[in-house]
């Protein structure tokens, strides 16, 4: 049985500081939580940054740099995975839906990856979804994704493709053919977000039926689906992800006191199912990272 | 075994006149093909109209009215289903993706249904998809769909919800709860369009796992998947749709000489599998139409 | 979410004393392990008895009586479930396969249930499988199962139907119609025994596709599949079973020191997935036991 | 898309002459129907013989020889596939189920294959099922099947493994490893027989999830499931089988006037789904037959 790679998504950009006092916000806090996750078994940390004053999502390269350096001061073992999520929202105006309303943050591809180009982590995510998000629209059309993929590939960063529907997987297959990604393909199935994949076996089976052979996949759930999806992913041969980006609770009504406890529980589930956790070095071998 | 309802989608708005000489374009041609489909067993015809001069898609109420009247001159038995598709495309500009490029045709909900309100067919479609279509974006956010549904419901038109991903089915369930749709829910699964559901059993199983009990469903495929999906839908208990909107060929390399032959072949497949074709009256009973 | 019923199968008749020193053999040991399972959260114990001298499987009513009385001396809360398994093996002779070879123990139905009729536990199992077991044949033809079901029903014992293939589920449906079982139907899917259901999601989905609505089901695995099937069953809405009848190990290479630790681990998995364990009284309500 | 191999099972041993006047019984009739099937597109005929006087199933080598020679007088193109089914029934006595009752016909392996050894067709079937058949028991334990497989392999006959449950597929995989079968493995999934696989997509998916890579598979249904399973098998990439052994009716209430019309209809379904029928030579290439 392949060992299981645990990714910890430590803060994201949706969770708000008023939802939990344990959300890491400053570069120092984020770095500390990454290390805590690492000590519990995470091989990869998925990083967003925030404005240290307000806790609001940020794309500032400086915050990314400080976070990365603080982690690297402690260990170079842990695999770093930076987000490229911000810049994909379109809000149609009510009167004329072709005009962008306030809140729209659509950016051209090159403006979504400067922190990745500057800091060159081993991995960055690419979102492949175009879908409704309430009455907003998430837009990641093929032209955009392909250019982002090209930019990060050219500095040697491996993309992790975030997939929310079977259509995203079709786009992933196209990308893999158009670009010369280093093998294997690395994808995540994001399950339980409204209008995305439901957190069910049937959704996972559809995803797996479309997956290119040899791809490394992680299925993870949000909210109360987080730990059930850890088990379901392991049972079907996938890797796992937990973290405060996805879920605030250790169990019903019990806030997780940081990302460490979430990772600790995920590791326990994997082991209870007979699995083993991959070290960062083992994860690098599985993912074809480094040399 | 429930009888099978055959819908014929006679012209659509994607197929171009230069692709096949058999595409009906004028109201008279469209009406004739509807009658031809009816004579072969179609209980429902799904109608778009076109500019009689150019063959380009049109939303002109006059063309819809002429088409409907021409059909009604021949028979009132056949169930009419008008599209509300046009008005959902957004093309992000390359330099600033938040600005609509030429080709964008996004419309507010009220401007997408005047022909339905004027002509009050028994059924109209509502597209529930927000997705990439090449580098264009199809946008049907919940607010838009809900208002369109409310408008058509208020004049007694039953919506057929067109679904392209599992997320669309989640929106369909919400709609069913928010509005007082007459039972049963009527949905179509559109399979084989790029970035939509793939034309596979796994996709259909995911769709069915999310479908509200009692819903009447049709699964149909586009292009070369059209006739295979006729069989697959019947085998799993669904209804069927064919027509020049979805597919131009009777068999590989052989253009269908109109919608009649496509319906004839679909009916043969249903019967070869032991099924029976529902008459329009039987379809009305299944769909809760009329009074 | 329905609470999860944990059954502990404490000794079975396949496991041999030389495989683990923790196997309960005497009525006193078996009763003690039932109580240990109960203290860890088991609502039901599934009981076989053994010859106290040799550890070999036994059908002696006296051993069953002593075991039941020893449990009842401690608590009447725990639900007792006695096996009716022995008496179903046929070994074809090599030269003339129609002649039973030594080791054959096929019994007429009435001779397989005297302990159940005498002791009237709340539940007894009925095996519905006819299948190869190596070069032996397990035989439970409909005539036999129906008579056993009738006999135990007439003394008020609820049968739990043990199913090893989709065919067994067909027989279960027939039985339910022929006899006047008290609702709901109670079934177990035995997964991972050679020539029976494989311990996979696809097998479970086939089983569930055939299950009568409202049935209470448990899916459990043998050997190293035991704990993964605990998780898979809970994730799909089923109940669970563990115990030394099914599996000797707490984790790879680590023998379980009795049934208590196996139950403790199963309970931890259920809770880690967000589930709750049903008490015996809650299990009785779900199963329609008692009055 | 791979071409579809059509097998016609012309008479079997379950169908009775009083059920249809079109059942071929004498070697001449069976040979004629094989040729009729071939002319409609069958690449393989699956042959049982019967007592020409009574129509009862027969194992007489002479009848097989006459049938084969009559076919070979017309064509050597058609692939011949002889059954080895008879000799697998055990009827437990009511009073003592370990004693065989009248009707039992269990035979040692060597006595089930003399016609195959004598006539050396390109293919013969091997049944891998042990299961209830009403209150009778079909017995094909691994020891028996392995010896039959060895005997036919040693005279250069390729076995087609007939599978009725997921357990049979496990036995098939073992066989493939123990013996030096010529690639590819050739299997049939028999669907719709009571206590065997139900004629459903879920059953087929379980079967396919267990199938060794590269295996050539046919899924076929009995009775009214015959033609639906033709379509379902083709839709999932499998080959097909029809014939009076499996089903007497061309459509509901309409007896098929021989095997030719059943094949004609199967071929029409394949073509309507966009498939093509394999000639016997194309089938040989797919199956690795000949040299």
UniProtKB/TrEMBL annotation, chains A, B, C, D:
Keywords in alphabetical order: Metal-binding, Transferase, Zinc
Cofactors (names): Zn(2+)
Lineage: Bacteria, Pseudomonadati, Pseudomonadota, Alphaproteobacteria, Sphingomonadales
Protein name, entry field: 3-keto-5-aminohexanoate cleavage protein
Molecular function terms from GO: 3-keto-5-aminohexanoate cleavage activity; metal ion binding
Gene3D superfamilies assigned: Aldolase class I
Pfam families reported in the protein's UniProt record: BKACE
């Amino acid at each position: 049985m392949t060992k299981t790679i645990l990714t910890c998504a430590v803060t994201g950009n949706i969770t708000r500081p008023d939802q939990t006092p344990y959300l890491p916000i400053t570069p120092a806090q984020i770095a500390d939580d990454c290390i805590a996750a690492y000590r519990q078994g995470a091989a990869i940390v998925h990083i967003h940054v925030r404005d240290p004053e307000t806790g609001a999502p940020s794309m500032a390269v400086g915050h990314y740099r400080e976070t990365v350096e603080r982690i690297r001061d402690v260990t170079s073992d842990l695999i770093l995975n930076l987000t490229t999520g911000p810049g994909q929202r379109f809000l149609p105006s009510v009167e004329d839906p072709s005009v962008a309303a306030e809140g729209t943050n659509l950016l051209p591809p090159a403006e979504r990856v400067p922190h990745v180009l500057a800091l060159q982590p081993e991995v960055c995510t690419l979102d492949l979804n175009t879908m409704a998000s309430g009455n907003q629209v998430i837009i990641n059309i093929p032209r955009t994704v392909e250019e982002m993929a090209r930019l990060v590939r050219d500095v040697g960063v491996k993309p992790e493709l975030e997939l929310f529907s079977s259509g995203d997987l079709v786009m992933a297959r196209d990308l893999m053919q158009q670009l010369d990604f280093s093998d294997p393909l690395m994808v995540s199935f994001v399950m339980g977000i409204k209008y995305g994949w439901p957190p069910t076996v049937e959704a996972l089976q559809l995803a797996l039926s479309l997956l290119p052979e040899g791809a490394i996949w992680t299925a993870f759930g949000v909210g109360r689906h987080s730990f059930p999806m850890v088990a379901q992913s392991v049972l079907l041969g996938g890797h796992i992800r937990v973290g405060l980006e996805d879920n605030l609770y250790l169990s019903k009504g019990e806030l997780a006191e940081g990302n460490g406890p979430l990772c600790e529980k995920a590791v326990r589930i994997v082991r209870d199912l007979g699995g083993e956790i991959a070290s960062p070095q083992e994860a690098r071998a599985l993912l074809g990272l480094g040399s």
